[in-house]
Every structure is written in structure tokens, then in C-alpha cells.
Design brief:
about 750 residues, eight-stranded parallel beta barrel, 24 helices, alpha/beta
Length: about 750
């Protein structure tokens, strides 16, 4: 008896007929409507009676929301693997992880040759497929250094650039029947995809044995390979007419042994009949799942992800890996997993977490929290984006990563009300909202996660005209330390709603926020480069100009040490949050008088274009020393101190972000962010804490508090700078009510009042 413990999945195998193109798409939509998991299509490019399979896969993915798509199987000889790798990753990204790569070595060689493809012997076909799998995975491995170089007998590339990385870990499924191909499945593939029309069910045990032996010889666990099966010639009938020729309950009875005795976990029904698809999804799939679950409970069949001995050896102490909740196992990543490299690090900090949990919904977040609290390991929450402090990763701890909770929904385009998942990235948010003529002021980097800014502050390119990000939040959904799922707003848990806007990381795991976006489509962007050798005088003048600018203007200024004997260079991004070019020119012209201008340009730009694009997983660039403060004006004293900091190199990156305007119209006690009189946020990054602090300490007399997202200090000595009284006392009281046990204590922790 062989049951590999995979979750059962069900799909369809649809004829891609060109005579009625909409029918194939309609059958795929019917597959989704029936609750099935997958729609697949054969791939015979040389057959003019069929639609091109890749085009069809793309079209179906665009027409559906949940359904996964796959070739069954794609014709490798006519689809070069280097191009196929890029195409597969692109479709997976566009569909948010809904593509799987069914791949075949080739057949019907006359047709392949007629289209310019090669003729290969069976042995050559297996060799070519082996090379292709390695090449495809190399292209997907966007984190590896250097280009892809391989010189094979059938496939070669010579320094091809890697990427893009797929949205999810695309499964490579092989159609295989003979021993050599079965051994290839065991050694390299993620799934075995035969068809009953070509395979006798009696041959399944021996084929599985060959695959399992090859997997173990390659250092893999046989459970890492999903077993799929195409069901051809099946039909529903009121009475028993043979194998899969009867009522739904007969199908369940006949398919059950294939699952629990032969390991088949994905059943793909070959049919072009909508009614058959409906019955398969409504009656067979749920009943078979229940029957298999009962058998597995009786047999004690393991159902979690399969891991090799090496992966098991990489586990960290203090974590009950076998106790991970069932709903979270599919997305859980351990140190020995191949996905680990993509989730271990933060934006700045390198990490070695013991376990990364990736929930899909708030209920799973609650399960993750309950599980994490039982472990002898630290708990960190990651919203999906980057941060400077490094609080989103750890060494040996449990990370709750919300990156999969990345929904972006426009609830009311007229009012601008939108709902954003905490794991969404601001670059994606800007693009989606831009299509509706909407924008939210939200920092300057598209890779930042919604959950970070929307609970801390959010100093963005439209702060003076539209406020901080938190100033536009009207409701928050979060999971509290005790596992409650709450919706908080001005009328529901108003104390928690107040605290979340400025100190959210201390109060719970925010899963989504509702925000009123501004009706802004196009803005005017002015970019200036200055010779800032006379740094102190330049800073004073620039600060006066920025403060005097109309509220439509928000300006960011960045200073860096000069090179090759040159003095400091300053670069400014000045945004006029409207498309009135005449008014914008008038507002931007004074910035030309701040100092010697080395370069200048101004242009109309869609708001999303202002954000630095996010790229792939974080690599842990190395945590800098970062200090943050807020000032009302740039005084002579502060300008001199900052000038010395820049000139010495103790700060290699110094930035002013303009606040004021609408930010300061908000009452000081309206949110947990209480700094409503400052006009600038100042941040300095250095490599040596002692050297930077010796200068920063001199500046503290000029400061009006700090913006905690830009500071790597989290101790009690700076708590009052981030949350001046009476804000801090109020936060401590709320912390006592919602997190008295200090579950959320790794991101600028606030002690409960009882402490």
C-alpha cells in the first residue's frame, strides 16, 4: 500500500479545439465554477485543428480567478527550454501562482520535424528532457550569482540572465511510462502525469517503485513527487457499466484504491461535457476527499510536506515542526527547504529563522499565532515588505509572513475607499489604484509592505497635501494576541483603532486596512541635483524654501559624501501633487535657488512611477546603524551638526523627508503618532554606531521626537522619543488590555502598564 499523503486535487483535461475557441475557455470556466483545482490542455502545435496551447493557457488564466492551468503535457521539442522558463515564470507571476509545468519529451516526430523541430530517438528525448529541466530551474533561480551557462547535447545557453522568479514554486510534471523516463521523474521532477489510456492500473505499483527508488538514489523523499492521473473515457451513468462508467458513488469506490493504495493525489478528468464537469466537482471530488481522509486517519498516513534527511537535520531546537497546524503546512518553510533562501532574510538584516509560516487568511494567522506561542522560540511578524530595523527576521525563531495576504480591492472608486492586504507591496498598490485615478501617499519604495507603513506612519511623496498613510486609514482588521479576529474603527474598539495608527506592531497582527485614497492620477515631479559643498548654508536655504512651498509640494532631500575629492552632493525629489503644470512650475522654481544646481528636470508622471520598484526576495544587505528624528525647522545648529556628519562620512546617507501641511492639521492626540508640529523627518545611516551616535547626540536638543521606522534602536531609552507622554501612557494601558503577556515584543516594544 502506497499513499504519499498529498492533499487530493481534481482537474479537467479539455480539448483545445480551434473550431470553437470559446468552448474550450468556457469549459475551463466551468471547471472553476465546479470547485475543481486545475484545467489542462494537450499541446500539439503541429495540429492546425487545435488552438496554440500556450496562448490558451494565458487566456484561461486571465478569464479565471482561482483556477490553476497546465499543459498536459507541453511539447518540449517545439518549445525551447530557455524561452519556456521565462514564459512559465511570466504566466505564473501574472496569474499569482496559478501555473504548473506539465512537460513531455515529444512524440509525433513527423509533425515536429515539419515545423522545424528535431527528430530524436527515445534515448535522445530523455537526454533532452533532462537537460531542459536543469536549464529551466537554473533560469528560475534568480538569486544565484552570474548568468546561466550550460553546454548540453541538445540545449545550450551562454550566459543567459536569470529570472524572473515565478510567483510560486512551479511544479514540473512529466508524462512518463517507460523505466528510463520513470527514473527521471524520481530524480528530478515534482510530479508524474500518466494517462489511463496508455497505462494499465495494474502497472501503477511497479512504476511507483521505480520512481521511489530513483528518488531515494537522488537524495530525495518519494513523497516529494506528486502522482497525477489523467482519466480518459470516463462517463457518468445511472447504472454500473464498468470502470468509471456509473453513478458518482461508484466512481468514488473505484478511485479510492488508486489514491490510498497507489498514491494518486490528482485526478484529471478528460471531458468536454459541462454537466460531467459539474458532477465531478460537486459529487465525486468532495466524497473522495472524505473517503481518503478517513482511510488516512485509520492508517496514520503522514500528510505534511515531505522532507529529506538533510532537511530534517537543518531543523532548529525549540520548535515542534510536526505540530504545525494542518492549514499552514503547505506554506511552511524550514531551513532545509529550497524555498528557504527566498524567505529567510529581511531587507537589511540577514536571518536564519527556524520556521516561516505563510498564512493565506486571518483565521490562519490566528492559528499561526497560537502555534508560535507554544514554541520555545521568538516570534516575528513580517508584512511582506522591507524595513530597516531587521525586526522581520530572526535567528532560530518563528516568522509569520503575511506576504500571501496581498489583496488590493477598490471598494468605492468615487469615495476612494480601498481595502489592502497587509502583505501587499506599495508598488503594486500604486499600480492597481492608478488605473482608477487614485493614489495613497506611502513612502518612496515599491517594495515596502502595507502592514508596516499603515501601522507606523507613512511619510510619502504627498504627505503635505494628503497626510500620512495612517491619517487616511478608516478601518483595520487584525488578529490579537489571544487569537481574536477584530475589525476596529472609530466605532468599534476605538482605543485599539487609535493605537494601531502609529504603534500597530505592538497591538496585534494587522491583516488588512481600509484606506480612503486620494483622487490623484498624474503629478509633477521635479528632480534636482545640487553641489552641497557649503552643506550647512545649503540645508538652511533648502529648508526655508521647502517650508514656504504650497501644500501641494512635498520634497525629499538626500545627501551623500562626495567622491574623488568632491564635496557632498544633494539630490531632491520634489513632487507637486496635481497635474496643473503652470502652478507646479511656480511652486518648483524656488528650489533652483537652494544652491548650485548640477542637474534639473521636471515632468508629468503617473504617481506609481515615483516609487522605486521592488525586486524579488530580500538578501539581507547588512543592517546599517540608523538614527531618526523630527524637526520643526532646520536651524543653524542642526544644519552645522548634520553638515559635519555628512562631511566626516559618519553618515553615508542622510535624508530629509518633508511633513507638515495636512500632517500637522491632525490633532496631536488623534492617533498614536503624536508628532504633529514637525516639518521634517531626518534619518542618518552609518556603519559604526559609536561614531554616528557621537554626532547624533549633539543633534538631539534640536529634535521633536523620532519616526520609529527609520531607527534601528528599539530600547526603552528611545521609547519616549517615539511616543511622548501622554501618548506612551495611553499606549501602555491599551497594551495591557490587548497584549498583557507581551506576545508582540520584537518591534519597538511597549511595556504594558502592569510592568
Amino acid at each position: 500500500m502506497t499513499d504519499y499523503g498529498h492533499r487530493l486535487e481534481f482537474g479537467t483535461f479539455i480539448t483545445p479545439t480551434a473550431q470553437d475557441p470559446e468552448r474550450a475557455v468556457g469549459l475551463a470556466e466551468a471547471t472553476e465554477a465546479a470547485g475543481l483545482d486545475l484545467a489542462s490542455f494537450q499541446d500539439h502545435p503541429y495540429n492546425p485543428g487545435f488552438l496554440d496551447t500556450w496562448t490558451l493557457l494565458s487566456w484561461v488564466a486571465a478569464r479565471t480567478e482561482r483556477l490553476r492551468v497546465a499543459g498536459n503535457v507541453l511539447n518540449l521539442p517545439l518549445r525551447p527550454p530557455a524561452v519556456l522558463a521565462r514564459a512559465a515564470a511570466s504566466l505564473d507571476l501574472l496569474s499569482k501562482g496559478r501555473f504548473e509545468l506539465g512537460l513531455g519529451a515529444g512524440a509525433f516526430w513527423d509533425g515536429i520535424h515539419a515545423m522545424g523541430g528535431p527528430r530524436r530517438t527515445p534515448g535522445q528525448s530523455v537526454e533532452a528532457l533532462t537537460e531542459a529541466i536543469d536549464l529551466i530551474r537554473e533560469v528560475w533561480d534568480a538569486d544565484a550569482r552570474g548568468g546561466v551557462r550550460t553546454q548540453g547535447e541538445h540545449h545550450s545557453v551562454h550566459g543567459m540572465k536569470r529570472g524572473p522568479r515565478p510567483h510560486h514554486d512551479i511544479g514540473i510534471w512529466l508524462g512518463a511510462y517507460k523505466p528510463r523516463m520513470l527514473r527521471l521523474v524520481g530524480a528530478k521532477a515534482d510530479g508524474w502525469l500518466p494517462s489511463l489510456g496508455y497505462l494499465d492500473p495494474a502497472d501503477l505499483p511497479e512504476s511507483n517503485r521505480i520512481i521511489d527508488d530513483a528518488a531515494e538514489a537522488a537524495g530525495r523523499h518519494p513523497r516529494q513527487i506528486r502522482r497525477l492521473l489523467n482519466l480518459s473515457g470516463a462517463a457518468f451513468s445511472p447504472v454500473d457499466r464498468g470502470f468509471l462508467q456509473g453513478p458518482p458513488e461508484q466512481w468514488v469506490e473505484q478511485l479510492l484504491p488508486l489514491a490510498v493504495e497507489n498514491g494518486v493525489a490528482t485526478f484529471i478528468l478528460g471531458t468536454d461535457d459541462p454537466r460531467t464537469i459539474e458532477i465531478f466537482g460537486a459529487e465525486v471530488a468532495p466524497a473522495l476527499r472524505e473517503a481518503v481522509d478517513r482511510e488516512r486517519v485509520t492508517a496514520g498516513t503522514p500528510t505534511g510536506p515531505a522532507r529529506t534527511a538533510a532537511a530534517l537535520g537543518a531543523r532548529r531546537s525549540g520548535i515542534d515542526y510536526e505540530g504545525v497546524p494542518e492549514s499552514l503546512r503547505e506554506g511552511a518553510v524550514e531551513p532545509g527547504d529550497k524555498d528557504y533562501r527566498g524567505v529567510r532574510h529581511g531587507y537589511m538584516q540577514k536571518g536564519r529563522p527556524g520556521l516561516v509560516l505563510r498564512p493565506d487568511e486571518p483565521a490562519q494567522v490566528a492559528e499561526a499565532l497560537a502555534y508560535a506561542r507554544e514554541q520555545e522560540a521568538t516570534l516575528n511578524v513580517r508584512s511582506g515588505g522591507h524595513g530597516i530595523s531587521g525586526a522581520s527576521t530572526s535567528d532560530g525563531g518563528v516568522i509569520v509572513d503575511l506576504g500571501r495576504m496581498d489583496g488590493i480591492e477598490v471598494l468605492d472608486s468615487e469615495s476612494g475607499l480601498v481595502r489592502l492586504g497587509a502583505g501587499a507591496r506599495w508598488g503594486d498598490v500604486a499600480e492597481r489604484l492608478g488605473a482608477h485615478g487614485l493614489a495613497i501617499s506611502s513612502g518612496d519604495h515599491g517594495g515596502v509592505g502595507v502592514g508596516g507603513i499603515a501601522t507606523t506612519g507613512g511619510v510619502g511623496y504627498m504627505s503635505r497635501s494628503h497626510g500620512l498613510t495612517i491619517d487616511n486609514v478608516v478601518a483595520v482588521e487584525l488578529v490579537t494576541a489571544d487569537g481574536r479576529l477584530l475589525r476596529v474603527d472609530a466605532d468599534h474598539h476605538p482605543d485599539l483603532f487609535w493605537a494601531v495608527r502609529g504603534a500597530g506592531a505592538n497591538m496585534g497582527v494587522v491583516t488588512s486596512v481600509e484606506i480612503e485614497a486620494a483622487h490623484v492620477d498624474t503629478v509633477v515631479l521635479g528632480q534636482f541635483a545640487y553641489d552641497a559643498a557649503a552643506t550647512a548654508a545649503f540645508l538652511r536655504t533648502w529648508g526655508e524654501i521647502a517650508t514656504a512651498a504650497p501644500r501641494e509640494v512635498t520634497a525629499f532631500l538626500t545627501l551623500g559624501t562626495g567622491r574623488a575629492g568632491q564635496g557632498p552632493i544633494a539630490q531632491a525629489m520634489v513632487v507637486y501633487a496635481d497635474d496643473d503644470t503652470d502652478a507646479a512650475v511656480t511652486a518648483l522654481e524656488p528650489f533652483l535657488k537652494a544652491g548650485p544646481v548640477l542637474d534639473q528636470r521636471a515632468q508629468l508622471a503617473p504617481y506609481p512611477a515615483l516609487l522605486v520598484p521592488h525586486q524579488g526576495p530580500h538578501q539581507g544587505a547588512g543592517v546599517p546603524v540608523s538614527r531618526s528624528g523630527l524637526v520643526g525647522t532646520i536651524t543653524d545648529t542642526s544644519a552645522e551638526i548634520l553638515a559635519g556628519m555628512v562631511a566626516s562620512g559618519d553618515s553615508y546617507f542622510t535624508q530629509f523627508r518633508q511633513v507638515g501641511g495636512v500632517v500637522n492639521d491632525v490633532a496631536r492626540d488623534a492617533t498614536a503618532y503624536a508628532h504633529r508640529s514637525a516639518n521634517f523627518s531626518v534619518a542618518a545611516l552609518g556603519r559604526h554606531a559609536g561614531r554616528l551616535d557621537s554626532r547624533w547626540t549633539a543633534l538631539e536638543g534640536e529634535l521633536q521626537g523620532m519616526y520609529l521606522s527609520f531607527d534601528t534602536r528599539t530600547g526603552p531609552e528611545v521609547l519616549a522619543q517615539a511616543f511622548p507622554e501622554p501618548t506612551l501612557g495611553r499606549l501602555r494601558a491599551i497594551k495591557s488590555r490587548y497584549d498583557p503577556e507581551r506576545v508582540f515584543d520584537h518591534n519597538f516594544p511597549i511595556p504594558p502598564l502592569a510592568d
